[in-house]
Amino acid sequence: MPLSESLAKLSDSMADLSKKAKEAETRTAQARAMNQQQLEARAAEARAAVERRRDEMKARGAKGQEEMEANWASLQVHVHEQFEKMRGKIEERRAEHDRHVAGRRADRAESYALEAVYFAEDAIAEAEAAVLEAANARALADTKAGSTAPA
């Protein structure tokens, strides 16, 4: 409710209160001229009015209590829903993070495997070259051993 509307309502309430106070003042002044029976009747009317007012206040209070309880329940539901949304977003982000971590781990594993394959290929090539060099050296050694052998 805008401030101007709120102030207007409060101003109206104050004017109504002032009017009621003036009426009470007038009735009190009139009581001086009343006899015992009239005063008792007026007092009974005043007590009845107070009781009606008290009942109205209780009813308004009960209604306010019901509204407050309903608003509280609504707020609790709303907060619960918001927490559930936040938990869902956290879970989504956690899953996304887990996917990224798993992807990076897979990339590293693939890279390592590829390096291991390159290493193995190099080792095979080195082994083949070493075997061929050893065979060549043996052939050379045998040739030299055969040419210098006594006849």
The total strand number stands at 0
- Tell me the series of helices and strands, N- to C-terminal: HH
Structural class: mainly alpha
Radius of gyration (CA) equals 51 Å
Q: Could you estimate the helical fraction of the residues in percent?
A: over 70%
C-alpha end-to-end distance:
127 Å
Strand content: under 5%
Outline the low-pLDDT stretches.
Answer: none
| Shape category | rod-shaped
Mean pLDDT comes to 89
Query: Main β-sheet: number of strands, strand sense, barrel status?
Result: none
What is the tally of helical segments? 2
Compact summary:
This protein has 151 residues and is mostly helical. The chain has helices spanning 3-31, 36-147.
Summarize the structure in words:
By secondary structure, this protein is an all-alpha fold. The protein has a domain at about 40-115. It has two helices and no strands. The protein has helices at about 5-30, 35-145.
Please give the structural blueprint.
Elements: H1 3-31, H2 36-147
